[in-house]
Design a protein that fits this description.
129 residues, mainly alpha, 2 helices, 84% helix, rod-shaped
Length: 129
């Protein structure tokens, strides 16, 4: 891609130089009201092209800086989210350990609750009869 860009820039510069060589007669350019510059057309074209290239380069730098700032902000957000995910995973592991620690208590409570349910069912049958 860089070689392609270089090729196009080279062609544009070559065309500008060839055009400038053919147009050397002096020309007057009015910059602002009352200010007039008289110089060969080739010099004026080269100055205008250089000014345009400089402005394009500055715009490129500005765009690159904006992309860099946006990328840094996205990276910071990703890091914050990764940190939050790690905190949540640690909390989940702590809760899992807590539940596994209480699991034997829950398993031992099941038969008692089944016995209570059976006694309650008998009581309901007796009261129904």
């Amino acid at each position: 891609m860089r070689s392609l860009n270089f090729f196009f820039i080279f062609l544009i510069c070559l065309a500008l130089v060839l055009f400038s060589i053919e147009n050397t007669q002096p020309v007057a350019i009015q910059v602002i009201q009352g200010v007039q510059v008289k110089a060969p057309l080739c010099v004026e074209l080269i100055v205008a092209t250089g000014l345009g290239a400089t402005l394009a380069w500055l715009f490129s730098l500005w765009s690159r800086m904006q992309r860099t700032l946006a990328l840094r902000q996205e990276i910071r957000q990703v890091r914050e989210k990764e940190q939050r995910i790690q905190e949540l995973e640690q909390n989940l592991e702590r809760y899992r350990v807590g539940v596994e620690g209480q699991q034997p208590l829950l398993e031992s409570a099941e038969p008692i609750s089944l016995e209570i349910a059976a006694i309650e069912a008998k009581a309901v049958e007796i009261t129904a009869n």
